[in-house]
Predict the 3D structure of the following.
Amino acid sequence: MYKYNYKLMIIITFCIINAATAYSSDSTQFYIQSAGMALKTENFPKAVENYNNVLRLDPENFEALKNLGVAHTSLGNDKLAIEFYTKALAIYEKDPTIANNLGAIYSNQRNTGKAIEYFEQAVALDSANYLHLTNLGMEYSKAGRISNALKVLRKAHSLSPDNPLIPYSLGTCFATANSMDSAEIYFERSVALGGKTVDLYYHLGLVKNKMKKMDEAKSYYKKVLEINTNHIGSLQSLGLLYFTNGEYLKAQEQFRRATEIDSTYYPAWVGLGASSSLSDQASKADSILNRLLAVDTAMALQMMDIITAKQQQKNKMLRDQAKDSLKN
């Protein structure tokens, strides 16, 4: 009697376990599908909720761990993204995408050493992926390892010759190495391939400036400002070009806009004070000088030195003109 009941209990328990397993499996698939749809539509909080439900049922579900890394990266939760990517990589260490994504997070955190470590891992797992190669090349460039950077970026370029990102990356490499001629060639190649980013136009402007191609530099700074009117670097650079050319009112406008965007960006205040002084706006220049003195005496002295140098340059030009007129 008891023996029969014992067997019956085992059968019933076994059926319950099987039913629970089937239910768990069905639920896992449901949550995975729901999470996948949320991820596809960029509803990242919903994706996180559903993938967390997957892990509640299956704590080592690779897909959930990996995609939680993606979702948290998109939400700006780097710490959680690293945690989930690392767990996923521990389960399957041969996934190059996870290694690349970890490299990207560390790169954004300016942890170049860790970024290189993971980008190298991604390239080792998939050496024919131009994106992984490009990311590694850019990180090598940040670390000053220019020869390494050029090697992997040239390989990336051979794999995807029509991608504007790669010649842009090569251009930044050469600019870092102070090889402006080569930087100009690759930046312009990137533009020719359809590159239209703020960073591309800005860096091309900087290169043109260093090559003394001032009009071309101006045009690229203006292109940046057409895309992003609040780009302080372009406003400052454009202001300095106008200032150097003696166009002080135009320079003032660029410097003024920069200070309105960031009142603590003191290079713009120095430029604004100097251009105000040289355009005979003494009270405005004095007000800016007092502002700089209250913050940093060195910046106030820099403003005065710039004004003095410009005045000396103007006086010399007037003396030379006077000498020439006497000769004639």
